[in-house]
Design goal:
It is built from four helices and no strands. It is mostly helical.
Amino acid sequence: MSIPDRFRQQCRWLRIATLVVFCGLFLLLALGAGGLPWFPARTDGGAGTRLLLMLVRLLPGLGYLWALWAVQRALGDLAGRLFHATLARALRHIGVGVLAGALLSVFAVTNLSRWILGGHGSVLYFDLSGIVLGVVGAALVLLAQVIDRARALQAELDEIL
């Protein structure tokens, strides 16, 4: 098996594995396992408050699921499309998903949960992994711009020659 064929096969297997992880995480988030039990002990309100808290705490998972979806889509595209275009789009979408999930995790979930519960708790949640994921997501978006510019320069050079 040649290297390109082996690479395509690895992309197919990793795409299947990514889809399995995506479906599993989607199911877990849909069932409320995204960090909030169905009946939290410290809520003052009833079912409406619990539902609102669950929706707020699901927000970062949506960004991360978007990033996983972008990964599996990119792996599917690598077999037949232009490498640079696929790579730039994948980096941009993965970066946006990871950045959005991290920002929502660090800022929105903490403050919205505090607001829903009546002002109890901290203003910011300094989660090291969330902050690092945010920086990595932003870097991926910037790297996608570098690849887009390189592709444009390559196209311009190809026209000259």
